[in-house]
Amino acid sequence: MAARARQPVTVEPKQDEQESAPAFVWEPYTPGSVLRVSHTSCCGLYEWAAEGGQFFVLRSAGDRGYEETGRGRYRQALDVYIALAEAHRGEHLRRGERPDPDTFLLNGRRG
Prior knowledge:
Residues 1-23, 91-111 are annotated as: Disordered. The chain is of the alpha+beta class. The chain contains two helices and six strands. The longest helix is centred in the last third of the chain and has 21 residues, at 74-94. It starts with 8 loop residues before the first strand and ends in a 5-residue tail after the last helix. Residues 1-19 have low confidence and may be disordered.
């Protein structure tokens, strides 16, 4: 199987996210083998995905499809997902909103 060429994209956080959002490199997602999305974060912002033995986080890129970050082993990618989900939860709390519960954070998968 040929390796996919990736064009890294560094995405700056939105103005209201700049204090809390972790900085990650987001790359265009190019479908490969069978994609499995097993978890979606609050507001549907991030998706926990696996493909061909690799784990990663997806987010919508609007008309450009999807972007991914954190591709790698389970623990590495899970740490990225948790950092993003916790930052997003913090944004809701700072605005006085009640975030949707995230079972990855609630069920202790962070440990």
